[in-house]
Amino acid sequence: MEHSLKLETLIKEGCIPKEHTGGENWEILHGDTLKLVKSFHPGVFDAVITDPPYASGGTKQNERNRTTNQKYSSMRSENALPDFDGDNKDQRSWTHWMAEWLYDVRKACKSGAPICLFIDWRQYPSITDALQWAGWIWRGTAVWDKGNSRPQKGRFRQQAEYIVWGSNGPMPVNRPVSCLPGVFRYGNPQNRIHVTEKPLQLMKDVIQICEPGGILLDPFAGAGTTILAAAEEGYQAVGIEVTDAYYKLGTDRVRFALDVAKQYKEDGRDGE
Predict the structure, then answer these.
(1) What average pLDDT does the chain have?
(2) How far apart are CA 132 and CA 113, in angstroms?
(3) What is the pLDDT of residues 204-220, one digit of tens each?
(4) Are the CB atoms for 168 and 113 separated by under 8 Å?
(5) CA-based end-to-end distance of the chain
(6) Within 13 Å of residue 171, how many CA atoms lie on the same side as its CB?
(7) 3-class state of residue 170 by DSSP
(8) Which domains does the chain have, with CATH numbers?
(9) What is the pTM of this model?
């Protein structure tokens, strides 16, 4: 089937990266978000849904410089997933970096487009600053309740992450989008392929903030969860991934899952 998502309509002439992979309604670009977001035409995306590197695994420099597996995973070294890039910044440089790509991404979005950013408690103040510095309107915060978490004697469990959301200017109240919950309860995915992978159903719920059939951008595609969720829910989606291992893992995962679903559907029709 011919692709209905055309990179030529989204990216300026001569700026399409050499390496990209896609299907009927999705594409993942291999490259640095900070550079690639500058190449999009203005006003092409209907929403931004992403899970950026938190760079939050410690308050001291030696803690921040640990690998992402050491910071965010309890897996044994022999079972460790690939580390991902961009997670060793201190808070000041991370906030500046966030504001820079958020500014360029806003230019590539339509007026009123929503944005959703996953984050933990450590970087929550900084991400809300960066969002507003980049010109977005901060509209609130939703909660991802992960349920299970390590108990801490005399302390609260850290069982939640947050979805900071906003919009590119005024957000019309008459958009064809239903009321969305403020709390999402899903455990961490089993058999994940990314250190900080989010549950597929969680992403399917979150992307409902986008108008039906819209084009979503995920500047940090990782395991491809947002892209897969969008494609399965009838949206179009573009992702960016800089880490070589996750570019391959993510694109392979999305392609395989959609091919299986397509084959299943075709087999069902043939059997009627």
Answers:
(1) 88
(2) 15
(3) 999 999 999 999 999 99
(4) yes
(5) 22
(6) 19
(7) coil
(8) 7-270 (3.40.50.150)
(9) 0.86
